[in-house]
Design brief:
mainly alpha
């Protein structure tokens, strides 16, 4: 009798759908479990690479930052969350490791990184949409609304954080790529975001970021196409202009005719109330001044700054300063400087398509603005982790442009006309 040999139909490798699914679950913060999902994804990546892992200087910098946070914030972190509080410090190098080690030699790493970026952007935004429906079902109307997974009150800044990267990808989705499904899905998410922001969370940051997410890449396109004889920049400008006119006209018609109760909705919204109370009134600078004054008295963190001031430090560096002290803040500052340098370096590289470089540049611009305005490490560590996942992939692209498959590269003309 002949022995039947059944060959496996699915071969697990570093480009496995399983890893993309795990990243999507991290992005949507499934069951409020980013911490556990990131560790599961990390071990899956290590196993699939069979121990042949990639490490870089930025990864070591993040590892040093995590060790510093754990060392100087030990008593505070252990008191609040026990061993988990200490282990969560290592989410940052682990997240970076995941993205960096999903890249391979002689593969279309640009396309792979784009997939990772889109999965993270849309997963984060879907979490925000789940929160929106959850609040409408429960009748919530306060800015600090209910999170879908925990069913507990979630700060407006935390809710807005879910849409930050969507703001950065908005222009790319509509004007620099051709996939109609991505365009339609992005339009749906952006419309829901604007509605949710108007009615419930009333975030000033999101309004700033959606403007940056349009004007910043538009400027890059104009500069890039300045010597283009095919008038590519005028086509992009025309598309943006027509889209802006259409949106403005639709808004005015709906508002002044009060169609579907639109005028009443806008006038009674949290955003309008906040505008009337002083939209640009900001207490962040007060918090910054207090933190900077007290940091010399408490140079090694331990959450003393927040306990004394009874305020969050609305800045990722102040978050690090509060928990891990001056050493942790300096290490994080060094990483962010490297982060900015590498962003500029990627944009200047011709190995990768122009549209991809604009996407990454704009995403980092919006992420850095968010880092400068909110206490990321105190309440939105999962957002920093998601940014670090695709940052690891981008870091690999910068360090190893020679590993990009030559047949996969797009020409400038092909990408620009999308």
């Amino acid at each position: 009798m002949k022995r039947l040999c059944v060959k496996p139909t699915v071969k697990l490798n570093i480009d496995s759908p399983l890893l993309y699914l795990l990243i999507a679950l991290c992005g949507i913060n499934f069951l409020d479990g980013y911490f556990y999902l990131a560790f599961i994804t990390f071990f899956a990546v290590v196993l699939l690479r069979k121990g042949r892992v990639v490490v870089s200087g930025n990864l070591f910098l993040l590892l040093l930052f995590s060790l510093s946070m754990m060392l100087f914030g030990f008593s505070y972190l252990y008191r609040v969350n026990g061993v988990n509080g200490l282990l969560k410090c290592f989410l940052y190098p682990i997240s970076f490791f995941i993205g960096e080690n999903m890249m391979e030699r002689d593969k279309d790493n640009e396309k792979r990184t784009t997939h990772i970026i889109l999965i993270i952007i849309f997963s984060l935004a879907l979490h925000g949409i789940l929160n929106m429906f959850n609040n409408f079902v429960t009748g919530g109307s306060q800015r600090n609304s209910i999170d879908f997974w925990t069913q507990s009150i979630s700060a407006a800044t935390r809710q807005a954080c879910l849409f930050v990267l969507l703001c950065g990808a908005f222009f790319w989705c509509f004007f620099l790529q051709k996939n109609r499904f991505i365009q339609a899905f992005c339009l749906l998410l952006v419309a829901a975001m604007m509605y949710y922001n108007t009615v419930i969370i009333a975030s000033r940051t999101l309004i700033i970021l959606i403007i940056v997410g349009i004007l910043f890449p538009l400027l890059l396109c104009v500069l890039n196409f300045s010597g283009d004889k095919t008038n590519a920049r005028y086509r992009v400008l025309l598309r943006v202009f027509l889209a802006a006119i259409l949106i403005l006209a639709l808004y005015l018609v709906l508002y002044y005719t009060n169609a579907f109760g639109f005028k009443r909705l806008i006038d009674s919204s949290n955003l309008m109330v906040r505008i009337q109370q002083g939209f640009f009134r900001d207490k962040r600078n007060v918090s910054r001044a207090m933190y900077l004054e007290l940091m010399w008295k408490y140079p090694f963190g331990g959450n003393y700054l927040r306990e004394i001031t009874n305020r969050y430090g609305h800045d990722i560096l102040l978050s690090a300063l509060n928990t891990g002290g001056i050493p942790s803040a300096l290490i994080l500052l060094a990483f962010l400087i490297s982060f900015i340098y590498q962003t500029v370096k990627l944009y200047l590289m011709r190995t990768y398509s122009f549209s991809f470089r604009v996407l990454v540049f704009t995403l980092y611009a919006t992420a850095l603005i968010q880092f400068a305005l909110e206490p990321i490490l105190d309440g939105e560590h999962w957002f920093f982790g998601c940014v670090l996942i695709f940052s690891g992939a981008v870091n690999y692209l910068i360090k190893h442009p020679e590993h990009q498959s030559g047949t996969a590269r797009l020409t400038e003309t092909e990408s620009d006309e999308g």
